[in-house]
Design a protein that fits this description.
The chain is an alpha/beta fold and 462 residues long. It has helices at 4-28, 73-77, 120-123, 142-151, 161-169, 229-246, 252-275, 282-287, 293-310, 330-354, 420-430, and strands at 53-59, 105-108, 113-116, 129-136, 179-182, 206-208, 315-320, 361-366, 370-376, 380-384, 388-393, 401-403, 405-406, 413-415, 418-419, 440-442, 445-447.
Length: 462
C-alpha cells in the first residue's frame, strides 16, 4: 500500500487537471454566468437598469416606413418620376419610379409625431413613443433579415436576442420560462429565430403555438398532466439520476433536458393561470380589441404578453406573421394588416401605463426591413434593408422623440443611422447589460449578441 507521500507524488498532475477543468468550465460559461446550480436564478445587471423586461411586437414581412410613420411629402410631390439618385447595387427584383403613399398622414400629440391613417390608435400614443427612423440592416432577403434582427447574424446560427436576455438576467419567476414567443413564424429561419443555439438549452424560448395557430388555441402544450405531483417528482428524480449516470459532467445537452423537465414540472400550476384570459374584465378585452373579429387574434397575443410580463417573464415576443410583404396590393393589404394590430398595440401600451408597468417594460415594434419608395409592379413595394422605422416605448427611452431621418424619399437612412447591432446594444443597455461584456465562450472564442459591432444609441435614453 503506497504511503501518503507516494500517493501525492503520483497524483499531483491529477490535481492540476482538476483545477484546470474547473477554470475552463467557468470560463466557458462566460463572465456573467451564475456560480450556483440554478441557471435561471435572477442575476444582477452590470449597472442600474431602466427596464426589467421586454415585449417585442414583430411585424413579419417588412412594413413600409413611408406608409406608416416616416412621412415624405416630397415622395408625394414627385410621384411617378424616376428616383433622382442611384438605387442600391443589390436589389430583390426590378422596381420602377417613385410611388407616393396612398395613405394620409397627420401629426399627433405634443410631440407632433407623424403617423399615417393606418395607425390612428398607435398615433394617439405618440407622446409615449420613441421613433427611430434611421434603422438599417445588412440583408434584403426575409430569411437573412429575420435572423439578423433576432440573433445579430444573417449567416450563422446564433442565440436569439431573448435567449441572451434570459442568460444575462435570469427570470423573475422560477415557475415560468424566462423567454416566451407567441405564434412564432415557422418560415424564414423558423426556430433559429428563437433558438438558444450554443447557449445552454434552458435559455431557449418556449413557443406558444405558431404562425398557423389561432390565438384562441395558443397555450403551453401538455402543461397540465394527469399524474399526481408526488409521483411525477419521483419519476423526474429517477430520470435525472439515470441521465447523469450515463452523461459526462460537461454534457450540456443532457443537463439542458433535465432542466427542461424541471421547468415543465413547475409550470403546471403557474402557466394555466397566466394563460387564462377569461379572468380579465370585459373592459380590458374591449381595450385590446378582443371583442372584434379583425383585432381578436393579435389582441389576445398582446394581452397574453402583458400577463406573462407582469408574471415575471423577461422577454415576450408577439408575431404578426407573415403579412407585411406587399410586393403588390399595398393599399389593400397594409390596410388590413394595420387594422388587425393597431388597436391591440395601443391597448397594450395603455394597459401597461395604467398598471405602472410601462416605466420598466421596454416595448419594441418593427419588422425585419422596410420597403422601397419606388414601385414594384403597379401598386407594390420591394424589400428595403437600407431604411426602416422602429419605435420603442417605456423602459427608459425618451418619450415623444423622433430620432434619425431618411433621405427625402425614404430610401436610405441618412441622419443618425442606427444599425440592427446598435439597436441590440441599446436594448441590452436599457436592461442594465453591457453588450461587450455579455459573452459566452464557444468553439474557442467569446461570442456576444452584437458580435464585434454595435454602439448604444445614447440620444434615445431618458
Amino acid at each position: 500500500m503506497p504511503t501518503r507521500r507516494e500517493l501525492l507524488q503520483t497524483s499531483a498532475l491529477g490535481f492540476g487537471w482538476l483545477a484546470l477543468a474547473d477554470m475552463l468550465a467557468s470560463r466557458a460559461q462566460g463572465a456573467d454566468a451564475p456560480r450556483s446550480g440554478d441557471p435561471l436564478a435572477p442575476k444582477k445587471p452590470h449597472f442600474a437598469a431602466k427596464a426589467k423586461r421586454v415585449i417585442f411586437l414583430f411585424m413579419h414581412g417588412g412594413p413600409s416606413q413611408v406608409d406608416t410613420f416616416d412621412y415624405k411629402p416630397k415622395l408625394a410631390a414627385d410621384d411617378g418620376k424616376p428616383l433622382p439618385f442611384p438605387k442600391p447595387r443589390v436589389v430583390s427584383s426590378a422596381t420602377g419610379n417613385l410611388l407616393k403613399s396612398p395613405f394620409a398622414f397627420k401629426q399627433y400629440g405634443k410631440s407632433g409625431a407623424w403617423a399615417s391613417e393606418l395607425f390612428p390608435h398607435v398615433g394617439a400614443c405618440a407622446d409615449d413613443l420613441c421613433f427611430i427612423k434611421s434603422m438599417h440592416g445588412s440583408n434584403s432577403r426575409h430569411g437573412g433579415a429575420l435572423l439578423e434582427l433576432h440573433t445579430g447574424s444573417d449567416t450563422f446560427v446564433r442565440p436569439s436576442m431573448g435567449c441572451w436576455v434570459n442568460y444575462g438576467l435570469g427570470t423573475e419567476n422560477r415557475d415560468l420560462p424566462g423567454f416566451v414567443t407567441i405564434c412564432p413564424t415557422l418560415t424564414h429561419g423558423g426556430v433559429n429565430n428563437y433558438s438558444s443555439a450554443f447557449l445552454p438549452a434552458i435559455y431557449q424560448a418556449t413557443p406558444l403555438g405558431n404562425a398557423g395557430t389561432p390565438a384562441t388555441q395558443v397555450a403551453v402544450p401538455f402543461v397540465k398532466g394527469t399524474t399526481p405531483p408526488a409521483q411525477q417528482r419521483l419519476e423526474l428524480d429517477l430520470l435525472a439520476a439515470l441521465d447523469r449516470e450515463r452523461a459526462s459532467p460537461s454534457d450540456a445537452a443532457t443537463e439542458g433536458r433535465i432542466q427542461s423537465f424541471e421547468m415543465a414540472f413547475r409550470m403546471q400550476n403557474a402557466a394555466p393561470a397566466v394563460q387564462d384570459l377569461s379572468k380579465e374584465s370585459a373592459e380590458t378585452h374591449k381595450l385590446y380589441g378582443i371583442d372584434e373579429k379583425a383585432t381578436e387574434n393579435f389582441g389576445r397575443q398582446c394581452l397574453m404578453a402583458r400577463r406573462f410580463a407582469e408574471a415575471g417573464v423577461r422577454f415576450v415576443q408577439c408575431t404578426h406573421s407573415y403579412k407585411w410583404d406587399q410586393h403588390e396590393n399595398l393599399k389593400r393589404d397594409h390596410t388590413n394588416n394595420a387594422r388587425e394590430v393597431d388597436k391591440p398595440i395601443a391597448g397594450l401600451l395603455t394597459d401597461l401605463k395604467r398598471r405602472g408597468l410601462l416605466k420598466d417594460t421596454l416595448v419594441i415594434w418593427g419588422g425585419e426591413f422596410g420597403r422601397t419608395p419606388v414601385a414594384q409592379g403597379k401598386n407594390g413595394r420591394d424589400h428595403n434593408p437600407h431604411a426602416f422605422t422602429f419605435w420603442l416605448a417605456g423602459g427608459g427611452v425618451k418619450a415623444g422623440l423622433s430620432y434619425g431621418a431618411t433621405d427625402d424619399y425614404g430610401y436610405y437612412a441618412a441622419e443618425n443611422k442606427v444599425h440592427i447591432h446598435d439597436l441590440h446594444a441599446t436594448i441590452l443597455h436599457l436592461l442594465g447589460l453591457d453588450h461587450t461584456k455579455l459573452t459566452y465562450r464557444h468553439a474557442g472564442r467569446d461570442f456576444r449578441l452584437t458580435d464585434v459591432h454595435g454602439e448604444v444609441v445614447k440620444d434615445v435614453l431618458a
